[in-house]
């Protein structure tokens, strides 16, 4: 069955849909957690600390966090490898273009591949910036995420990178969520409008939620 | 009407092709698009040139032979087959671009004619039912619920023209394959091969070199028979069900 999934274009799309939905679920949780920054440094830092002790004493220190990380890395790798292989197939299937070109599909649909690449590069920068602190501007303090977030969004490039990536994420989610529903067989003519609305709402809420943090730092609401 | 046509000319599968420009005059707006091309070909033959090769058969919109991309749209600006497109959809003095279906699974044979036998092989892989031969059974011998009958009819409308593949930016045959799979899988007559049909037809579709589906929706917009986009989702559901049930 695993072989059938991986070898078929429909199966590979299923893998993309499932891994995409796992990442989408994570994004929702991550965004809600980020919004704690509006309640002050104690609550935000306390939440960040809880992420490390989550599941104790049943789980060892940081195990829950590492389980989430492993699942996410697996999802990213499966999603990216499937996307690469399917894109290769798609480009081979249509080698010559029409002479008479027409604008096709929506902006979100046309930017899925670029959006994915932008987000992959963003994740690398994001982890080096706020998890390991390798490329962090100013002194990175482990255990003080509130101050680290303010440092990052006090630089112009920190804001630009973050906001561009979040806009790409919003567009990706808008087409991706609806697309995943179709791939998993949930598409019906009667359900189409509801699924599209849900995709739009998810994309909008995630984008606004994530972008509100750098905007709040820039405007001095969070300092 | 006086028109300027830019037509894809290609001597054979191996030769390189290019757009050639032709002027046609005296076109009535009551002519079908194919009759307009017939007029062009009569002139080309009289001048001793090679007529433009294009596929056509019934000219009633039911056989699925005609296959032209007109101004970038499969079957042109109206939602119908090329043979049912009339010149009243164009203005006097228009320049019209005419190209063949573009997909690596549909190689160009000559000019505007492409080889669509990949579709035949997808049908051979599972687009049939095992029915006992003999006298026709009574019409009410196998009851079919009305919603299922409607669903089957909606998908049975597919004429296999390939406009979905031509319109798809990935050259994907998902809409065609889903129409054929859904048509038979929902009916009791198609039940014995329900799982193998979808697995084999999707497998054949992949091995013919069609692209995958990215849900752009271009196929359903171009389909002259109105096969809806959710058909693809219905087939995906059948495929996932079959993958769980059949172990290969």
Protein described:
- The complex is a heterodimer of chains A (223) and B (248).
- Chain A has 223 residues and is mostly helical.
- Chain A has a single domain, classed as Fumarate reductase/succinate dehydrogenase, transmembrane subunit (3 helical TM bundles of succinate and fumarate reductases).
- Chain A has nine helices and no strands.
- In chain A, helix 2 (9-34) crosses helix 4, helix 2 (9-34) runs parallel beside helix 9 and helix 6 packs across helix 8 (156-183).
- The longest helix of chain A is centred in the middle third of the chain and has 31 residues, at 63-93.
- In chain A, 30% of the residues are buried.
- With 248 residues, chain B is an alpha+beta fold.
- Chain B folds into two domains: 3-109, Ubiquitin-like (UB roll); 116-245, Fumarate Reductase Iron-sulfur Protein, Chain B, domain 2.
- In chain B, 35% of the residues lie in helices and 11% in strands.
- In chain B, the strands form two sheets. Chain B has a five-stranded mixed sheet with strand order 2-1-5-3-4.
- Chains A and B meet through helix 1, helix 2, helix 4 and helix 8 of A and helix 6 and helix 8 of B.
